[in-house]
Amino acid sequence: MKVVSIIGARPQFIKCTPTSRELRRVAWWEVLVHTGQHYDDRMSGVFFRELGIPEPDYHLGVCTS
User: Fold this and answer.
1) Residue 35's closest CA among 8, 64, 4?
2) Where are the beta strands (DSSP E) in the chain?
3) Global pTM?
4) Which of 8, 41, 58, 61 could pair with 36 as two cysteines, CB 3.0-4.6 Å apart?
């Protein structure tokens, strides 16, 4: 099964972590889309690293400067 997870803000990163782990554990295909709402490393990148969220498959870059 394919699941698309769309994240963009801190609360979504936090909620995505256990969901993403479980989807991958049961071998479902997760497509991770980052809206780019928080493009600063302190508001986005740190969550990917510290929470172990996989790099997004797509980055929309909505708010890039």
Assistant:
1) 8
2) 2-7, 29-34, 58-59
3) 0.78
4) 61
Instruction: With beta carbons less than 8 A apart as the criterion, state whether 9 and 39 touch.
Output: no
| Phi, psi angle pair for 23, to nearest 5° | -60, -45
Find, among 60, 3, 61, 62, the residue nearest to 31 by Cα: 3
Q: Are residues 21 and 49 in contact, defined by beta-carbon separation less than 8 angstroms? A: no
* pLDDT value, residue 63: 62
Residues sharing a CB contact under 8 Å with residue 8, sequence separation 6 or more, in sequence order = 34, 35, 36, 37, 38, 62
DSSP state of 41: T
pLDDT tens profile 6-56: 988 888 888 889 988 898 889 888 999 998 887 666 777 788 888 888 888
